[in-house]
Amino acid sequence: MFIRYLTTKDKAELLIPMHKLSSDDNSRYISSLSLLEVNAHLLYQAILIKTANQDVNSFLDEISQDSLKHSTLLKALSTVSIPIAPQAPLFSEISATNNEAETIRNRIQATEKITDLMLPEIFRKLLTLETSLYEYYGFFLQIDLHKSLENIFLDFLNDEEKHKELLKRAEVTVSQKTQEQPDHTPQVKYKNPDSWSGAMPPTY
Length: 204
Fold this sequence. Notes:
By secondary structure, the protein is mainly alpha-helical. It has six helices and no strands. It has helices at residues 8-12, 23-50, 54-77, 91-109, 119-138, 147-180.
């Protein structure tokens, strides 16, 4: 979690608007996004370990690998002077998203097995995470960047859009599979109620 590594002075600066941050703060801001993507990657990996649903695992693994790629690129970009849009989210918002990703991962790791009935709720939480990342990267396209940097963040946006679509497809896949599963409810053969009288206990 990014905030864990901040000094008291750093924590006091969490609410400083992005356009007032120094170049070092900008670097730390990019690093916090890199850490968020690492946590996203670890979250998807935790889900892959706990679920046996091969129909959706390929979707989740693709997102997981993209998250790791994003983290690596962002870590490299943290050494480059990149301006931050005035409207960009604060450190505190990114830290809160990071906390949520860690919380979900901890709950997943504490679960013995993820069943298909549990997956839709997990997918909705993941969709919220991917939507947040999409919005974070969108702010970088509101400022004047070198074309190569602009293309990187545009690729991030395209990946996040793809991730949202993959999660929606995964949820539909699980829903269809659940509906197609046979009903194993025991069948009770109808019997005329009049014939039950002999088996009924006497009344008093």
